[in-house]
Amino acid sequence: MNKDLREIKAPIAQELEAFEKHFRDAVRSRVDLLDKSMHYIVHRKGKQMRPIFVLLSARMCGEITPKTYTAASLVELLHTATLVHDDVVDDAYQRRGFFSINALWKNKIAVLVGDYLLSRGLLVALDNGAYDILQIMSRAVRDMSEGELLQIEKARRLDITEEIYFDIIRKKTASLIAAACASGAASVISDQHTIDQFYTLGEKIGMAFQIKDDLFDYGELNVGKPRAIDIQEKKMTLPLIYTLQKVDSQQKKHLIRTVEKFNTDKKRVGELIKTVYETGGIDYAQKKMEAILEEARQQLNALPASVAADSMRDLISYVIERES
Asked: By CB distance 3.0 to 4.6 Å, which of 85, 202, 224, 242 could disulfide with 96?
């Protein structure tokens, strides 16, 4: 039986509470408008998965240190900054059932809030002398930006291949989870080989996480975003990429035209989704995700056994089997 998130967090429950205080202190501001928006963000936080990855990775390597809290705060600040900016770029007025920052305070303020979160992350690392953590996270931000821009570029031309798809998700999603695991390890140990192992572990988890998210777009589950939103945004994800390789040239042209010109037409999009199911696109993506998950578990098995490692194993299952 799969464990719930509360059980998974048990080995780091006290440390997670301590982290939350660190995070609240990190976003406090003397500017009233900024402090109000920070208060809104803090009280509508998600599951805090990335700080959990930091703390579990650190605990797998030994005792959690003050540097671990710096790493956890930095990853959450950077992640939150990217979400605020993403909502501006996507004209999204809700996130997980709540109004987005740009919906409440308009785009200009939302961009500045995102900038503030980014700068606070940099200062948290610098003020605590965590230069190695900052380097790991800065590389992740670079990769995330490159991944998003690559996806936008390919959405314009609709010429994405499976190889490019994996390059995109490795950069835009997996890089931050990889950085969370690596920085957690680096906050406790200095052995670069082991830190690299944690990076690879997080990268595999992140890639499987993104494929799962892409599969949600073809399902009926309530996952905080409308169904077929990826199609509306002309994002070519793995199920559709596989389908385009399997259909004949005429069908392929029809499907690409649906994504390009008729992505808000419910009938055309419904037909596209049906074709993806019928050609095995969903099953193919599911199998790819499971193969990457197995690689993540093998990577985890190569690391020392511990209670924290058991929780990490359960967290991997939770991330993939979640319904939101």
From this structure: 224
Please state the φ and ψ torsions of residue 235, each to the nearest 5 degrees. Answer: -90, 120
Superfamily name with CATH number, domain 5-165+176-192+300-314: Farnesyl Diphosphate Synthase (1.10.600.10)
- Measured between its terminal Cα atoms, the distance across the chain in Å is 19
Closest CA to 209 of 94, 324, 303, 90: 324
Q: What is the predicted pLDDT for the residue at 91? A: 67
Residue 158 and residue 256 in contact, taking contact as beta carbons nearer than 8 Å: yes
Which residues, 6+ apart, have CB-to-CB distance to 90 below 8 Å?
Answer: 233
Instruction: Tell me which H or E stretch contains 293.
Output: helix 281-301
Q: 256-293 pLDDT, tens per residue?
A: 999 888 888 888 888 999 999 999 999 999 999 999 99
Residue ranges per structural domain of the chain: 5-165+176-192+300-314
Secondary structure of residue 59 in the 3-state scheme:
helix
What's the pTM value of the predicted model, to 2 decimals? 0.89
DSSP class of 225: S
